[in-house]
């Protein structure tokens, strides 16, 4: 059924989540939708669905093509992404928990999530380091130390798992995934299709 919200399931360490975040918000604004930012436990989603693998378990051909696609999409989106950032991979949980803690504190998490994603893929920052996360939160006008102090709280951890439950129930398996009016779309390359679904617009939404 129609909803005013687009559910956005993601992790901040995903380059694909970064490559789509601005266009997602543009599409949402164009069609008078809000975006619900929902970090997930991506390792759990891969394990339970059997539809994804950690980087170290993927065949080389997929690892090689992944780099080609990141570079190609970065150029297409006009975003200066480094395909081999200094601090990758890092644990996804600290940054995911920080975004949830900010949401629970009533913050607009778009600037924060965007800054964290840009931190790893553009600015060469270690987003697995809580002190670095605090600095990133400070840079977008939030109270970084207070948010970092909450990242392991039961309510934050529970919300991460509830988000994961929601994505799995919607038919998702990895990130970034978007749910629009109950319909699952996987991958930032589906954002133009989401715009089409919302408004019949076949032109690029950027």
What does this structure look like?
The chain has 206 residues and is of the alpha+beta class. The chain has a single domain, classed as Glutaredoxin. The protein is built from 9 helices and 4 strands. The protein has a 4-stranded mixed sheet.
**Strand order across the biggest sheet?**
2-1-3-4
**How many extended strands?**
4
Hey, roughly how much beta strand do the residues contain?
Answer: 5-15%
Tell me the structural class: alpha+beta
Present the secondary structure layout:
Layout: E1 5-10, H1 15-30, E2 34-39, H2 42-49, H3 60-77, H4 93-104, H5 109-121, H6 130-139, H7 144-149, H8 154-169, E3 177-180, E4 183-186, H9 191-199
Parallel strand pairs: 1-2
Antiparallel strand pairs: 1-3, 3-4
Key descriptive features of the protein:
206 residues; alpha+beta; Glutaredoxin; 4-stranded mixed sheet; 9 helices
């Amino acid at each position: 059924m129609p909803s005013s919200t687009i559910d956005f399931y993601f992790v901040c360490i995903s380059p694909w989540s970064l490559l789509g975040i601005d266009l997602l918000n543009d599409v949402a604004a164009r069609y008078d939708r809000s975006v619900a930012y929902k970090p997930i436990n991506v390792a759990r989603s891969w394990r339970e669905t059997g539809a994804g693998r950690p980087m170290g378990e993927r065949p080389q051909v997929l690892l090689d093509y992944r780099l080609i696609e990141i570079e190609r999409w970065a150029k297409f989106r006009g975003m200066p992404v480094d395909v081999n950032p200094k601090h990758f991979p890092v644990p996804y949980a600290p940054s995911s928990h920080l975004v949830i803690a900010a949401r629970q504190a009533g913050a607009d998490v778009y600037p924060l999530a965007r800054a964290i994603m840009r931190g790893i893929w553009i600015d060469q920052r270690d987003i697995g380091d809580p002190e670095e996360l605090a600095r990133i939160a400070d840079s977008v006008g939030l109270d970084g130390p207070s948010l970092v102090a909450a990242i392991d709280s039961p309510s934050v951890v529970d919300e991460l798992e509830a988000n994961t439950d929601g994505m799995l129930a919607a038919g998702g398996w990895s990130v970034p995934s978007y749910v629009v009016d109950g319909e699952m779309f996987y991958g930032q390359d589906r954002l133009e299709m989401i715009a089409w679904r919302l408004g019949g617009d076949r032109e690029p939404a950027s």
